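Write out this protein's structure.
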Amino acid sequence: MTQRTWRVLIADDDPAICTLIETVLRKGPYEIVTRNDAESALVALDREGRFDIIISDFMLPGISGIDLIERLRADERTRSVPILMISGHTNYAMDGRAKTAGANLFLNKPFTISQLRTAVNSLLAQPKVNSL
């Protein structure tokens, strides 16, 4: 029996965060694609096919993380893909805005490796209807 490889799209303009997430997840059955803004994340979704989970920063250059999530939830191809939003700002209103836009979970930076793994594993364990 072969183990499934989960495809992860990360949209974050902080290279250190992208490297951290990649390092943590590469130890598991994950294929990681990173983009530094929402526009290139949307292009990756169009060009590279289905992703099993999307991790997005709240604050992105150009299109915000909130706008990215709203676009993903409006598209039937990505409507049910789990989204983990992360942010370095500790404003609890951001958590509510992220969830209202369609994020499944919200993590404040800095987060621990354990918190990241738990969040990703939890989202991937949820049943999905469709995904791109």
